[in-house]
Write a structure and sequence with these properties.
Layout lengths: L6 E2 L1 H7 L5 E5 L9 H8 L6 E2 L22 H10 L7 E5 L5 H12 L5 E4 L2 H7 L25 E2 L1 H9 L3 E4 L3 H5 L16 E2 L6 E2 L2 E2 L2 H12 L7 E4 L6 H10 L6 E3 L2 H5 L12
Parallel strand pairs: 1-5, 2-3, 2-4, 4-5, 6-12, 7-8, 7-11, 11-12
Antiparallel strand pairs: 9-10
Length: about 280
């Protein structure tokens, strides 16, 4: 079967529900209340969906991790994929109730495991329910699977690699809101500002009316940012390595593959007080 590898529309997914290879993951989450997404899932979710918690399932929240949402170990994540019934043939669909950023985190995690057939539900929970499509409150009933995979770490970078990347003329794109990038406010992390040399493109710029812009429009905007450079010359970051994945999804949607993720992002950068901090635009 042909697979969805970036986005899937709600109307298309509704027809595919019940397909034996389909695994749907609910990634709803709130930084203000980490339990809110799972509670919402318990009340209502897409039929057959399992719940993937950002901090418990899609991050490695240990004391020595890099940033607020450290990149998980492959073997830990893969064990959870098995529990959700995902194997190498599965068509995985991720959704959330915001702008797709938490779902995009799961998308990029699976993509780095070499899993091609994974896509984000465009418009997420909001559009699904607005269209009156089926929902359920039944818990996930999938059977455990067999699955083996490891991360392609060539597209995951740390702070030292970011410094080398900038020194070599690469582009570092910060996906946070402009006021946070400029250091005018910082509601989450202990230091305000940005990595010197970074440019700001808020991840919400990829959307219009809650859905991703067309591949053509995204391509035009990112090619202007690239200014003739290859997509592999881009590293994306945000506050903790989550919303930056939205840019990676948008770029791939536009046919611009190969950009990399600074997994620790701003919260990882400021763990070392000797690293420089810039403010302003």
């Amino acid at each position: 079967m042909a697979g969805w590898t970036t986005l899937v529309q709600a109307e298309t997914l509704a027809v595919a529900l019940g397909r034996p290879d389909l695994v749907v993951l609910d990634c709803r989450f709130s930084l203000l209340d980490p339990n809110a997404g799972e509670q919402a899932y318990s009340r209502s979710h897409l039929p057959g969906a399992a719940y993937a918690h950002l901090e418990r399932d899609l991050s490695e929240m240990g004391p020595h991790g890099d940033g607020r949402h450290p990149w998980p170990q492959a073997e830990v994540l893969v064990s959870k994929l098995r529990r959700w019934g995902i194997d190498a043939r599965s068509q995985v669909i991720a959704y959330d109730d915001g702008d797709g950023a938490y779902a995009a985190r799961l998308w990029f995690l699976l993509r780095m495991l070499g899993h091609e057939k994974v896509a984000v539900l465009d418009g997420g929970w909001a559009r699904w329910t607005a269209l009156g499509l089926p929902v359920s409150s039944s818990p996930h009933q999938g059977l455990p699977s067999r699955y083996e995979a490891d991360f392609d770490r060539s597209r995951l970078v740390d702070a030292q690699q970011v410094e080398a990347h900038l020194f070599d003329g690469g582009i570092l794109v910060d996906a946070r809101a402009p006021a946070r990038f400029r250091g005018e406010e910082e509601p989450i992390d202990r230091v305000a500002g940005h990595v010197p040399g970074a440019v700001n493109r808020p991840f919400a710029t990829n959307l219009v009316d809650g859905r991703f812009k067309s591949p053509m429009q995204l391509g035009d905007e990112f090619r202007a940012l690239l200014d003739g450079r290859d997509p592999s010359r881009v590293v994306v970051m945000c506050g903790s390595g989550v919303t930056a994945c939205h840019h990676l999804l948008a770029m791939e949607r536009a046919g611009l593959k190969g950009a990399r993720l600074y997994t620790g992002s701003w919260s990882g950068w400021i763990q070392d007080p000797s690293r420089p901090v810039a403010k302003g635009s």
